[in-house]
Amino acid sequence: MLKSSVATLAFAFVMVMAAAVLVVLAITRDANRLEAERQRDRIEAAIESQVRLRELRFQSLAAAGDLQSAFTGSDPLAALQDSLARLGSRFLEFDGAYVVSETGLVFAGIEGDGASGQTGYDGLKHFSPSLPGGPGGSPLHRLPDMRGGPGKTSWSLTHDGFDTLSVMMIDVPARQGSLAQLLGPLKIVGYRRVTSTMMTELAQRYRVSDIRIVRDMPADPLARRAIPAPDGAARAWLSWTPDRPGDAMLRQFIWALAGVGLLFGGIFAFVVQRLRGAAHQIAIRESQIQRLAGQDELSLLPNRRTFDLRLDQELAHLGRSGKGLAVMLIDLDRFKAVNDTYGHTAGDELIRQVAQRLTRLVRSGDTVARIGGDEFGIIQTHGNFPAGCAALGERILEALTEPFVIMGVATTIGCSIGIALAPEDATDRETLLRLADTALYQSKNGGRNRYSFFEAQMNRTLALKRMVEEDLRRAIENDELLLHYQPQVSIDGATIVGVEALVRWNHPEHGMVPPAEFIGIAEERGLIVPLSEWVLRQACQEAKRWDGIRLAVNVSPIQFRHKDFVANVIRVLDETGFEPARLELELTEGVVVDDADAAEAAMMDLRAHGVGLALDDFGTGYSSLIYLRRFAFDKIKIDRSFLEYMETTGESAILVHSIAHLGRALGLRVCAEGVETAEQHRFLQAIGCHELQGFLFSKGVTADEIDALLAQEKPFATTLAAA
Fold it and tell me: How far is C-alpha 77 from the geometric centre of its chain's CA atoms?
């Protein structure tokens, strides 16, 4: 074991060092690449700056009045040459400039300090064949104007194998006079040779090293810029040497890595030394573990392994002795609250005190064990069964209900007990423990702080829940559920304003299973979230065809408290394309009681997306006005229990009247559920309810039947008339 640990540590050390080296290399490589990209951008910016500077000089010359006035004299060509010569000072950055026609005819030209003519321009066309009068070739690049569109200036950078020239051409503004019309549009063409002096100045100005023109393409794409030949092919490149700040960083990191390596080496040596000592301690503790294998270290009671062995021994003697035995499983109530409030140290102390009290309660020969966590087990072999078990259960409840002093604080807990008898209930260990656990489950569901004997009905109930859980999970996955919709009508009973989605389950063996029988199991077994999402998705898909009709969907408190509830609702709306403004989620008061702040945040988020909210079963719970004032409800629904035995002058009628009046005063829509008679309809209409829902109008029906009702102008006129 020691060798394998050392090998593992050595491998981990090598992997850490390799990872550190790779990280350093990646950082330096990225630093070099980023600096090369920045230098390439500076080169591009430098070229663009030079081109723009020359463009401005060209535009200044083209816009000068001397060129335009030259066409109005007696000798316009001579005047044009003189004007170009006088303005030559504006071309200090150009080696030559020409005024030419669109056909390439030169009217004026300068080369350095002297005049030039057609011959000089024809030589210039060798570098840029696309100039006026040229044979055509790689076109000049049209520069954009200030608005981003194509401008009047073109530019090219060309290398003919010997020289590199920067050529620029600009349109001369329109002129007046007959001669101007005869000559047609003119252009000014200027050029400048790219020299080593220019590139040295460029390198110094923009802090880029070794800018030069080479004929072999550099390997690094970030350190080159192609210079086309007159025919458009790239035979020369503008190249430079990028700075490499990452190399400097690498030289600094090498010392840091060496230091880290030495540190890890020291740690490795220290750990190996400690492992040797630990190996010796492990050998000592193994002997202790063998001795304590059957004992719970915290409570000093027998553990689960010893409990099972003793139960097997007692069951083996059961047939020979003719006596019975009982197995009790005890689960502490509120143990988690003590652990969370006072810490694990307090929880451990509570376990020890519980163990001491249980040990004092049982007779000699009985077994008390800590099975795990906050669960204890008792094997009772003495006494009358089941009366003796009931008496022991009472003593345990009384003893564990008395306050425990934990860290100086009096703490009260309770317990739930499940009891199974042998041989009445079972004669093998696994079955007996399972039945006792079933009885314990019944005690917890029955209100806690009580004991329960196993009964056959418990097994049937669990089997039913297990069946419902498995079949319901399968039904959700295979879309075997269906939805009915109960109309919500306007107060006059003439118009359907909304529908409430009601889930139905047509079981292949048991027929139609009422929601009351599977909704609770779905909540208990963790299926309510997928079930509710299925209902929401299916309802949104089916209700899309009912324009203008609100869709009401009930929300389980467990579903609402789910961390992704709001996100799931929005996702379903997006996927189905259902309008959020037509969706109305019906919440009960239990949703907002447990965690009001979280509920308020979720409701505000839903409202921000346009989803409506209704407070369902109003009047049956807390019915606090704080909820109506604090939470963003759009509607309240009066519970059907108020209308079931209501008389128009009774207490229920007064409460219904008050709820309706309160809702209207707060600007909320009021909907009454369970409307079954015409008298109820007239009463609710008189007190100012907005919407009605009940069997007087329709029970829950399929989507096709809703289609049929919406197709009628007044679908409930006949029913109301008969009532």
Answer: 75
Mean pLDDT by 10-residue block, N- to C-terminus, for the chain (723 residues)? 67 75 78 78 77 71 59 67 67 75 84 81 80 74 61 78 83 62 75 83 78 84 83 82 72 72 76 73 69 81 91 84 86 87 89 94 90 92 83 93 90 92 89 90 84 80 70 86 94 93 86 79 82 93 94 90 90 95 89 76 91 85 66 87 70 85 90 91 91 93 94 86 73
Contacts of 254 (CB under 8 A, 6+ apart): none
Pairing of strands 691-693, 481-490: antiparallel
In one-letter notation, the amino acid at residue 712 is Q
Return the amino acid letter for 28.
Answer: T
Block residue for tokens 């066309």: 125
Residues 6+ apart with CB under 8 A from 686: none
Q: Which residues are bridge partners to 511 per DSSP?
A: 507
Supply the Cα-derived Rg of the chain in whole angstroms: 46
Rounded Cα gap, residues 415 and 426, in angstroms: 24
Q: How far is CA 61 from CA 72, 104, 187, 217, 509, in A?
A: 18, 20, 11, 38, 97
C-alpha span between 54 and 94 (Å, rounded)? 8
Task: Give the position of tokens 């319901």.
Answer: 472
Burial 487-504 (b: 16+ CB within 10 A, else e): bbbebebeebbbbbbbbe
The DSSP line for 351-415 is HHHHHHHHHHHSPTT-EEEEEETTEEEEEE-SS-TTHHHHHHHHHHHHHHHS-EEETTEEE--EE
**3-state secondary structure string across 261-284:** HHHHHHHHHHHHHHHHHHHHHHHH
DSSP calls for 637-674: EE-THHHHT--TTSHHHHHHHHHHHHHHHTT-EEEEE-
Between CA 350 and CA 338 the distance in angstroms is: 9
Please tell me the distance from the alpha carbon of residue 668 to that of residue 666, in angstroms, as a whole number. Answer: 6
- Tell me which residue of 397, 498, 410 sits closest to 450, measured CA to CA: 397
Please tell me the distance from the alpha carbon of residue 353 to that of residue 360, in angstroms, as a whole number.
Answer: 11
Rounded to an integer, what distance in angstroms lies between the CA atom of residue 585 and that of residue 556?
Answer: 10
Distance of CA 82 to the CA centre of its chain: 74
Q: How far apart are CA 668 and CA 661, in angstroms?
A: 10
Backbone angles phi, psi at 145, to 5 degrees: -85, -170
Q: Say how far apart CA 321 and CA 313 lie, in whole Å.
A: 12
Whole-angstrom CA distances from 696 to 489, 641, 642, 693 are 11, 16, 16, 8
Convert 35-62 to b/e letters by CB count within 10 Å (16 or more is b): bbeebbebbeebbeebbeebbebbbebb
